[in-house]
Amino acid sequence: MNICGLQKLTLLDYPEHVACTVFLGGCNFRCPYCHNYDLVTGNVASVIDEKDFFDFILLRKGRLDGVAITGGEPCLSPELPEFMKKIREAGYKVKLDTNGSCPDVLRLIISQKLADYIAMDIKNSPEKYAVTIGCRNVDLSAVRESVEILKDCDTEYEFRTTVVEELHRAEDFEQIGAWLKGADRYYLQAFSDSDAVPFAGFHAPSAEKMHEYVRISRKFIPNSSLRGV
Question: How far apart are CA 74 and CA 204, in angstroms?
Answer without folding.
Answer: 26
